[in-house]
Amino acid sequence: MTFDLAAPVEELALELINLESVSGDERAIADAVEVALRSAGHLEVIRDGDAVVARTDLGRGERVAIVGHLDTVPIRGNVPGRLEGGVLWGRGAVDMKAGVAVLLSLAAQLAEPSRDVTWIFYDHEEVDASLNGLGRLALHRPDLLAVDFAVLGEPTSAGIEGGCNGTLRVEARIPGVAAHSARAWKGTNAIHGAAPLLAALAAYRPKTVAVDGLAYREGMNAVRIAGGIANNMIPAECLVTVNYRYAPDKTRDAALAVVRKVLESAGVPGLEIAVTDHGEACRPGLDAPIARSFVEAVAATGAPAPKAKFGWTDVARFGSLGIPAVNYGPGDPELAHADDERVAVEQITMVREGLAAWLHG
Ligand SMILES: [Zn+2]
Are both 295 and 245 inside the same structural domain? Predict the structure, then answer.
């Protein structure tokens, strides 16, 4: 199996769909991608597990990473794919083999891009984060991720979605004193003790924060509550899990300080707060010159203005390295993982055009 990277991009995308690559089973597609990129001649190609990195080394003043994952969620009768009436159908049409086709096509064609490019194709995006191929690359070869700006080809309906909000999860522990509920006055009810804390959360007005020209809408919510061990006991402990989705103007510690301030304002005696999970935020970096030229090139394709990304994505792996990053790819994200995944060929060519104009200019 080899890919013809000079083929029309939608035909290349169909070939990619037809080579099944459900997470954990990316060996064949990674092999084919590696062979195709090696034959391009102008690229240094590096293989790490089932990730393939190809880069130019022209001594340009700037280096960008353009990134896509090779894996898909499981097949559901949607492989082989098909091209029909200007629409590409099949598993991965949206997430994200059309995007990968754009990247491969440009990697082969652009022998002398205006900025050095590190093309990254990786495995295990659709499964547990501990397996993620981009995370593994960051550990094995951090030098490969040292770039000035990164673009992930995830589906965004061919518009730019910049950066991503961070996500912080904390557990708030409200102590009480256990007692038989028949003699409740001997105890202190931890569930009741949570009431002021919940009131403080309910009253909190989340902010919308402008970062590098995009508006990030935040949220702070109790997402889980637990307390009580029997129907005739005054609970000695109540646990409230709080999730704070915070804008990329903040570090983890700054985000934690915001959560602490809100929870501690409730004045709950003996309150303990512990961080249980964290995913880094990522700045969009759209105010930097390198990104401005990208925004202009994409705007020229007729795409809508850049938007903030609210959900957490792999751009955060660049964010944690201090590298601004955006999502930009063909396909409606609402159709990702759907059995009837499909994308208009027009969107695939639009994204190819946007990236090509940026890398030429
Ligand atoms: Zn994806």
Answer: no
What does the alpha-carbon distance between residue 264 and residue 175 come to, in Å, rounded to a whole number?
14
Active site residue 71: yes
Quote the pTM value: 0.89
Per residue in 208-266, pLDDT tens?
999 998 999 999 999 999 999 999 999 999 999 999 999 999 999 999 999 999 999 99
Domain that holds residue 254: 166-279
Residue 332 pLDDT > 80: yes
The catalytic position among 15, 116, 125, 212 is 125
Find the helix or strand (DSSP H, E) in which 14 lies: helix 9-18
Q: How far is CA 330 from CA 98, 296, 334, in A?
A: 7, 18, 12
Domain boundary among 279, 295, 313: 279
263 and 321 within one domain:
no
DSSP assigned state of 185: G
What CATH number does the domain containing 215 carry? Answer: 3.30.70.360
* Average pLDDT over the chain, rounded to an integer: 96
Q: Which of 216, 251, 279 is the last residue of a domain?
A: 279
CA 313–ligand 1 middle distance (angstroms): 9
Active site residue 125: yes
